[in-house]
Design a protein that fits this description.
This protein is an alpha+beta fold. It contains ten helices and 14 strands. It has helices spanning 20-42, 47-60, 104-114, 122-132, 145-156, 168-171, 176-182, 251-257, 259-270, 274-284; strands at 5-12, 80-86, 91-98, 119-121, 185-186, 189-190, 199-204, 210-216, 237-239, 243-249, 291-297, 302-306, 311-317, 322-325. A hairpin with a 5-residue loop joins strand 7 (199-204) and strand 8 (210-216). Helix 9 (259-270) crosses helix 10. The chain is globular. It starts with a strand and ends with a strand. Keywords: Autocatalytic cleavage, Hydrolase, Protease. InterPro entries: Ntn_hydrolases_N (IPR029055), Peptidase_T2 (IPR000246). Its EC number is 3.4.19.5. The active site is at 198 (nucleophile).
């Protein structure tokens, strides 16, 4: 075994004009989450516990698009989704359409541990949450004034925003015309802004056990009931005995590519190493989609890959390496 390794992400696709202050806030949050995970790994917590712990921290901070601070639907509400997967036996849990659960990733963990199912959604997931006694809050808890303003801009532009952490001055040109000029597309339809900020964590512990977790509020101004890649095992999240992967970016492209599973598949079937596998799927499996991913292998390797304009990310290994970054 190569020792433990951990990676976190806050989304791929970053506005190039993002203010320096925002960039520093993001780096500080990623660093805090990495240090939380590192401490847990040094205390010999298993990988599955560490990914849940770290993603809970990300969900509790409104900076990124998960938990508190989630993107708003077309109706101005929040519908969150998350998934978690334990590599050794490929156990998994996923949830969608959450409106009151404070930490979606922990409900996904309970679906995995305390139910006979792998995926619960909407009213069924909410009912299960109450049966399990998880902390719930009013939907208003997740809604920030910044989100309300961004939803207003999205509606004025008659557009879906991949996410919303774009400074207001950058959205003054966010219009149908701008979308047509940029030709950013999703399932053949134009969108105006590309800046997804799903959160995720992947870990391999000192025993070589891999785990992954991903959580998001989805797209700003999305249709109610829309489900993205984050809760879909094999697309946004995957872990097995070889590796663990968490994806972020254009959800529909990630779904079509079954991106997370493909990393493991080419390692297993083509004999590629982790870096080669990540490079291959980013280059060959996304078609015209934009996305990124973080991955660890059972050998203690850690890799971040993306074809978008930057990705909020951080990683660390047992031998003392630690890095936090946004751009290439």
């Amino acid at each position: 075994m190569g020792g433990w390794a951990i990676a976190v992400h806050g989304g791929a696709g970053v506005d190039p004009n993002l203010p320096q202050e925002r960039q520093e806030e993001a780096k500080q949050l990623l660093t805090r989450c990495l240090n939380l995970g590192i401490a847990a790994l040094r205390a010999n917590l298993p990988a599955i516990d560490v990914v849940e712990l770290v993603v809970r921290e990300l969900e509790s901070d409104p900076l990124f698009n998960s938990g508190r601070g989630s993107a708003l639907t077309e109706k101005g509400t929040v519908e969150m989704e998350a998934s978690i997967m334990d590599g050794p036996r490929r156990r998994c849990g996923a949830v969608s359409g959450l409106t009151t659960v404070k930490n979606p990733v922990s409900l996904a963990r309970l679906v995995m541990d305390k139910s006979p199912h792998s995926y619960l959604a909407f009213s069924g997931a909410e009912e299960f949450a109450r049966q399990q006694g998880v902390e719930v809050v009013d939907n208003e808890y997740f809604i920030t004034q910044e989100n309300v303003g961004m939803l207003k801009l999205a509606k004025e532009a008659n557009s879906i925003l991949f996410d919303y952490r774009i400074p207001t001055h950058g959205l003054e040109t966010c219009s149908a015309g701008a979308a047509a000029d940029n030709q950013l597309m999703m399932n053949g339809l134009p969108i105006s802004v590309y800046a997804p900020e799903t959160v995720g964590c992947v870990v391999v512990d000192s025993q070589g056990r891999c785990a992954a977790a991903t959580s998001t509020g989805g797209l700003m101004n999305k249709r109610t009931g829309r489900i993205g890649d984050s809760p879909l095992i094999g697309s946004g999240t995957y872990a097995c005995d070889l590796c663990a992967v968490s994806c972020t970016g254009e959800g529909e492209a990630i779904i079509r590519a079954t991106l997370a599973r493909d990393v493991a598949a080419v390692m297993e079937y083509k004999g590629l190493g982790l870096q080669e596998a990540v490079n291959f799927v980013i280059k060959e499996r996304l078609d015209e989609g934009q996305a990124g991913l973080i991955a660890v292998s059972r050998n203690g390797e850690v890799v971040c890959g993306f074809n978008a304009n930057g990705m909020f990310r951080g990683c660390a290994t047992e031998d003392g390496f630690m890095e936090v970054g946004i751009w290439e």
